[in-house]
Amino acid sequence: MTANRKSYSSIALAFVWLILMPSCGFKPSPQFAGGKHIAGLASLIELQEGETQVVLNDYFRSDALAHIDSVSAHISLRAKLSADHSILYLRQRNLYVPQITEVKIWLDGVPYSLMTRRPVKNDHTFTFNPGEKKFREVAVRGDMTGWDDLPMGLVDGVWQLSLPIEPGRYQYVMVTDGRQTIDPLNDKLLTDEAGGFHSLLEVGSIDHSQNPRVFAREYQKGVIELELVNDYEEIFVLWENFRLPQQNMELQDNRLRVTIPGDAYEKKRSFIRVLLSGEQCRGNDLLIPLQHGIPLTNHRSLTRQDREATIMYFLMVDRFFNGNTLRDDPIMDEEVAPRANFHGGDLDGVLQKLKEGYFEELGVNAVWFSPITQNPLEAYVEFPEPRRKYTGYHGYWPVTLTTIDHRFGDDQVLEELVRSAHKRNISVLLDFVSNHVHENNPLFIQNPHWATTLELP
User: Fold this and answer.
1) Which candidate, 337, 445, 339, places its Cα nearest to that of 394?
2) How open is the CA angle 11-13-18, to the nearest 5 degrees?
3) Residues 6 or more apart whose Cβ sits within 8 Å of residue 164
4) Which of 272, 297, 376, 386 makes the best surface tag, with the fewest CB within 10 Å?
5) Pure H helices in 240-357
């Protein structure tokens, strides 16, 4: 559904969970065939400058790719499939690209909707005046560059770099002949938590009061009523990965009535998805959970299996909380700085905080741990300069893949932790190091020819 409405504010993407009133006895006929080629909900495709390559295995089951018939996209995008249907190429034409567009992919005659999002960016120019000093190279490094160096160009004695940047707050530094420094023309600073400072860049407006927004207001007899606030460019409504046809929607003033498709009543869990866009800003998105076609009335009906409802907390076990000092075993090496040694955090500490309700008070329902497999008992020198010494407090140097590091805990405390978490409807995710091992790991010792170069691009 499209309306000729415009808005020019900026907003961060917001996900809204909906509580609605149920209805009984209403069950329209199914409208969509298929639906099993995608596991879960297809995430939005972030369009890149020029060409965007979409790995279709990230969306569709591997055995489904051979069944792709054709693709189509918005007129502002050129869509092309690779010969084996594994890659979708989206190239922007010399036309205005709406902030949200739809790409349809047909599998055995069934059209799936993959949604694209065009980042809203403002042009920002970094300048660096060296004065009397001479530099061979000057670059910008920061959040907006992925902390890679982007070289600046010298124009009339001043180093310059123009970048399109999404609205937000970014930390960055200047790099002059390999030496990192703050931006001398920017007095906004943030600590880098290592004894120094980063420059702070703020891009775009932080006044979101005029951004387009959509809210769900009520549910009655298979129809959800949405309220639209402020001007918007376009609104998309999907059930699962299918865009709802015009017959399922009725727009009147600022109210949009959405009829839930009959297919939803056949599934225990499915979702209505609403995406709203402005021309120069992001509207909010709605994700409405349905149970056999009826919007949920209580958040407690959501379980750990509802991954779309996951609010995740990541913790580094050694740095979280020391719950059992008997496990403490820092490495005694004068060349290891205290902050590069073990600090005593363990699974006992995580379990203690779990029982105290710490994670529930934070509002999270999933906890992701740093690796807990056994790491070496000695410190090792880092590969690049300045060749400092570190311990394996981080967990990413596994010498085994099946044994818990004695500094973190044992099987018993891990089992109790997982049981206690699940009892509280909290998921536990273990970070498993699968692409490298420590040189003392038997896998490497017995199969040295499996190893690749230490030079990591």
Assistant:
1) 339
2) 120
3) 49, 121, 122, 123, 124
4) 386
5) 317-320, 347-355
Per DSSP, the residues of 372-424 read -B---SS-EE-SSTT--EE-STTS-S-S-SSSB-TTT--HHHHHHHHHHHHHT
Contacts with 74 (C-beta within 8 Å, 6 or more apart), sequence order: 97, 98, 101, 102, 103, 116
230-283 pLDDT, tens digit each: 989 899 999 999 999 999 999 999 999 999 999 999 999 999 999 998 877 778
Residues 6+ apart with CB under 8 A from 206: 10
DSSP helix/strand/coil, 267? coil
Q: Tally Cβ neighbours within 10 Å of residue 253.
A: 7
What sign for the dihedral angle of Cα 296, 298, 301, 306?
A: positive
Q: How many CB atoms lie within 10 A of CB 359?
A: 20
Residue pLDDT, tens place only, 92-132 = 999 999 989 999 999 998 999 999 998 888 889 999 999 88
Q: Crossing angle of helices 347-355/411-423, nearest 10°? A: 20
Residue type, 422: H
